[in-house]
């Protein structure tokens, strides 16, 4: 069974019906976030690379057919039209790292309708989760006000794959390192880590634990000082570091309590011991709100380690994302459901100064001060270039954050930037709405009202 079976059942039933009805003309689906979560003024495009990897390898094999048939309780022969289905379409997308706003397409897929439908679940999963985490990480970097931030999230993310993604997305946002060894190795990140309270508890006392740790690890070390009494732990750490001559680049870590007040006292102890170069690392339930408070108060903390609340985007754990059909066989389509109206047609996002974006049609010329964001990244089911590089995504994000209005960068009660629709897109939406409403009104006309002949009952012969 391949990742093609990692899908919602209705994708399978729709794709099968399309194939049986010979509805295989090109369809365009647009993936976007309807509304931003509370407390968010922007999002960060992410997840594209894993989505493209999935599409490039998409293939419905025999094992997938068996899985579909068993799930539907139907003979495998009924699912035969899906056999050997591959993705042969085009993907246009916002490159990872760009700031994106509500309603803006993160990605648009154009492919034969059954293909474009069947890949929806996996693509939407990758973009939704990673875009949410990337935005959370970016807000941490903003709140840290230039202090290094590192990722400690792996042990509490919702699965190890999510932990890997959090480490990668943290690096995209500007994190200085991660505790995730596999992610550090694969993504060429700086691996960071200290010790757990259990390590301290395993020894007779803190001095023995610190000394043993330093013996095992040459170079700078970081001692966890709050296992028993924080101020006492800081004093012991200072003594061990000084006696061993291991002060350059070394640090202590605070993991509980009033981190701001404890950092002030710890800094005083270290300075009095002649160790001004020993840094203070803070961890323990931190997120952008805590970082904002600590940095605004001038807490003498050098490095912030964030974990649980970042790896799951605790205050905004999901996005109101959607993957909607916007064109089929050259015909623009839209949805008119209450509070879920979609815009028809293939689209482009034009980035203007200050992220005052315009959402327009894919084939319309950009505004004089607008730069198109969506790029063609896959054609005929094959990437148009090499995979995106993480440093490039990081540079895009830093540049976009720099041009966001200060009110959008605020950690508390930020003001979202709103994208506007272009004139051609607005006109198309009006025409398509009119066409649909006219058709719906016609279909709802009661029989015999003069607009169309009333259907006659069938004649029965004796």
UniProtKB/TrEMBL annotation:
SUPFAM superfamilies per UniProt: Nicotinate/Quinolinate PRTase C-terminal domain-like, Nicotinate/Quinolinate PRTase N-terminal domain-like
Function field: Catalyzes the first step in the biosynthesis of NAD from nicotinic acid, the ATP-dependent synthesis of beta-nicotinate D-ribonucleotide from nicotinate and 5-phospho-D-ribose 1-phosphate.
Protein origin, superkingdom: Bacteria
Broadest EC class assigned to this enzyme: ligase
PTM entry text: Transiently phosphorylated on a His residue during the reaction cycle. Phosphorylation strongly increases the affinity for substrates and increases the rate of nicotinate D-ribonucleotide production. Dephosphorylation regenerates the low-affinity form of the enzyme, leading to product release.
Segments for region (Disordered): 438-462
Source species: Streptomyces celluloflavus
Pathway(s) served: Cofactor biosynthesis; NAD(+) biosynthesis; nicotinate D-ribonucleotide from nicotinate: step 1/1
Gene Ontology terms, MF aspect: glycosyltransferase activity; nicotinate phosphoribosyltransferase activity
Family in the record: Belongs to the NAPRTase family.
The name this protein goes by in its record: Nicotinate phosphoribosyltransferase
NCBIfam families for this protein: NAPRTase_put, PRK09243.1-3, PRK12484.1
Coiled-coil portions: none
């Amino acid at each position: 069974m391949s990742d093609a079976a990692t899908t919602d059942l209705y994708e399978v039933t729709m794709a099968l019906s399309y194939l049986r009805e010979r509805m295989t003309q090109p369809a365009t689906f647009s993936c976007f976030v309807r509304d931003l979560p509370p407390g968010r003024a922007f999002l960060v495009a992410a997840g594209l690379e894993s989505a493209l990897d999935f599409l490039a390898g998409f293939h419905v094999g025999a094992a997938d057919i068996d899985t579909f048939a068993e799930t539907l309780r139907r003979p495998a022969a009924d699912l035969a039209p899906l056999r050997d289905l591959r993705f042969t379409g085009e993907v246009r997308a916002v490159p990872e790292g760009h700031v994106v706003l509500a309603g803006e397409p993160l990605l648009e897929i154009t492919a034969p309708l059954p293909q474009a439908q069947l890949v929806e679940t996996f693509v939407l999963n990758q973009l939704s989760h990673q875009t949410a985490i990337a935005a959370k990480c970016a807000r941490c970097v903003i709140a840290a006000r230039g202090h290094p931030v590192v990722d400690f999230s792996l042990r509490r993310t919702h699965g190890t794959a999510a932990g890997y993604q959090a480490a990668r997305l943290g690096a995209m946002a500007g994190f200085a390192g991660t505790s995730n060894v596999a992610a550090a190795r694969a993504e060429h990140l700086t691996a960071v880590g200290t010790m757990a309270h259990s390590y301290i508890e395993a020894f007779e006392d803190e001095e023995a634990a610190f000394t043993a740790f330093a013996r095992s690890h040459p170079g700078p070390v970081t001692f966890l000082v709050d296992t028993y009494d924080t101020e006492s732990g800081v004093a012991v750490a200072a003594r061990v570091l000084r006696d061993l001559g291991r002060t350059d680049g070394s640090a202590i870590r605070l993991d509980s309590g009033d981190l701001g007040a404890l950092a002030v006292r710890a800094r005083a102890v270290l300075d009095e011991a002649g160790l001004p170069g020993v840094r203070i690392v803070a961890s323990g339930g931190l997120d952008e709100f805590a970082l904002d408070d600590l940095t605004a108060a001038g807490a003498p903390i050098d490095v912030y380690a964030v974990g649980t609340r970042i790896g799951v985007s605790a205050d905004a754990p999901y996005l109101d994302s959607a993957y909607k059909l916007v064109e089929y066989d050259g015909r623009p389509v839209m949805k008119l459901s209450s509070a879920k109206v979609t815009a028809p047609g293939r689209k482009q996002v034009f980035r203007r100064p200050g992220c005052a974006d315009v959402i327009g049609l894919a084939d319309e010329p950009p505004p004089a001060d607008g730069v198109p964001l969506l790029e063609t990244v896959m054609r005929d089911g094959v990437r148009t270039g090499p995979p995106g590089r993480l440093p490039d995504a990081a540079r895009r994000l830093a540049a976009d954050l720099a041009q966001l209005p200060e009110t959008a960068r605020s950690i508390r009660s930020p003001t979202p930037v709103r994208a506007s629709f272009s004139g051609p897109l607005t006109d198309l939406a009006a025409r398509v709405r009119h066409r649909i409403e006219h058709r719906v009104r016609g279909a709802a006309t009661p029989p015999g009202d003069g607009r169309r002949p009333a259907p006659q009952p069938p004649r029965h012969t004796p």
